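Handoff note, outgoing to incoming analyst
You'll be picking up this chain. Sequence as last confirmed:
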Amino acid sequence: MATETTTMKELIGIYQPGSQHMVGDGFPVRNLFPSNDLDREVSPFLMLDYAGPQYFEPTDHPRGVGEHPHRGFETVTIVYEGVVAHRDSAGNAGVIGPGDVQWMTAASGIVHEEFHEKEYARKGGTLHAIQLWVNLPRASKMSAPGYQTILNADIPSIDLDSGAGRLRVIAGSFLGHKGPAHTFTPVELYDLQLKAGRRVALALPEGHNTSIFILQGRASVNGSEEAGEAELIVCKREGSQVTVEAQENSRLLVMAGKPIDEPIARYGPFVMNTKAELVEAVNDYQAGKMGHLRNQ
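Most recent structure output, in case you need it:
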């Protein structure tokens, strides 16, 4: 009888932030991609901005980034510390705190703002978050915008064997536990906490891109050299398993997805397939076709 073999995903490399900047006045970010030219290796993910951890003094004027547009992809904001408030031109509004996730589908076009929540800003505190951009395939880029507030309580949390740590399933599935996020293409997104000296084997689809970002601690993948805080481990598509081993108590974000092998055309907050589509996006935004936010 034939048996199915499990092959390890080999590493492409370990990457440090390629740039560092402020988004508005409230999100000090270190960028892992696209600043490292990893489009093909991390698709369907387009961007990873690592915000903080940074303490903000109390203020009556919440910091953040004001009205701006997006088209052609999704934004995923994961909060570890702090509280972030969102509002968009489709009428959606939400507040996310530690453990929560906001999954916004810009698709055909949306305008939104992101600020530190008022009470959090008034008290001051540490902000620690990740924002991902997830590409949409050509067939879905002009779909209707959407919005998902995914609260910590709605995210399955699985205790790993022998007290090794725990894994939260934001998207995809792990050991039969399905994450709450709706995705247009297959995506696995896990919030993983692993204790020093422990390991976990993750089965991930053959042919899917896989990368692991380290927020805290030190860890290795499939026996690789250790990577540390704010570093990204990127694996090849081939293979179906990664074994993560923590050298220190670690928190990691595991990202895997079916690659979208289509042309990518970028211009600021727009990601399409052609330059002509980018020009159309700019014109549509300037003509008000993506809407605007009402003052509150």
